[in-house]
Amino acid sequence: xxxxxxxxxxxxxxxxxxxxxxxxxxARAVAGRTVVLAAVGLIAVLAMLSAGCGSRGSDGARGxxxxxxxxxxxxxxxxxxxxxxxxxxxxxxxxxxxxEWQPAPADLAAVARSDVLIxxxxxxxxxxxxxxxxxxxxxxxxxxxxxxAPRVPxxxxxxxxxxxxxxxxxxxxxxxxxxxxxxxxxxxxAADPPGAGIYQANAAAYIQKLKALDAWxxxxxxxxxxxxxxxxxxxxxxxxxxxxxxxxxxxxxIPSVTAGASVTPxxxxxxxxxxxxxxxxxxxxxxxxxxxxxxxxxxxxxxxxVTGLLDHSLTSSSGPAPDYIAMMKYDTHxxxxxxx
Length: 340
Ligand SMILES: [Zn+2]
Fold this sequence. Notes:
Strand order of the largest sheet: 3-2-4-5
Bound molecules: zinc ion
CATH architecture of the largest domain: 3-Layer(aba) Sandwich
Mean pLDDT: 82
Low-confidence stretches: 1-61
Distance between the termini: 16 Å
């Protein structure tokens, strides 16, 4: 399948691709810019709010409902519910790790202009939500994961202690995304009651696509022998995916549900032993993550590192994952092909 052409088995010390290198540079640039300008941005947003900025015109009439989502995959899911009635914006640029992202002044201004802010929840947008609360604004914050239970590590998984926060990666299970869709549908209906029928029909149609995606993933995973369904990711991103499709989370290079945590030499040595003992075939690293530690562990354990998973961001329209369903199919292919 053509999308597999973008998958790269890593050579130590090299970026997976020029595109990945550009994304990493851009992510660092965005992070630096936000630190410098965050305080200025809050002041600017407060000034705009006090000046009456928003979707309400000077005559008090409301324009089209303005909807903005944090990540690109949430934007796509919400756009499927909105259909042609609304255009959903996104805050976090394609290719940027949402765990590491912090809002810039322009992002806070965009939130201040919106009526509905769609967030994943579970701590994925912690920095943004604090900034939004400080900045004020009238946006209705919709947490799409509301109603979904946080994951509890399964028996036999490595015990990384109680320091682990809530795992926010529900979106890697398409069945959980059905809850995302119903929450988005209800929020759009509340914000724009005349569009209720459209949102309800679009949501129902998209839920059918999610069910088809679930069946497709099941069929792909069935080609991997159950004993080989062992996942080692760069961070603990695939717990919900593992639970749904019969994988076991063996460990993670960075034993955290966020990507920015630290790792000790003892934890790395332990993971090497686990990979050797269980004959794990590969370590998977997301495109926006630095694979340096994964390379070290893989070298010691004599397994391959597979980079380029796309589970935290879509690609541009010309890439292999321009929408959520394509993203899930892409990653499933990468995982299945490297574990068979
Ligand atoms: Zn993650």
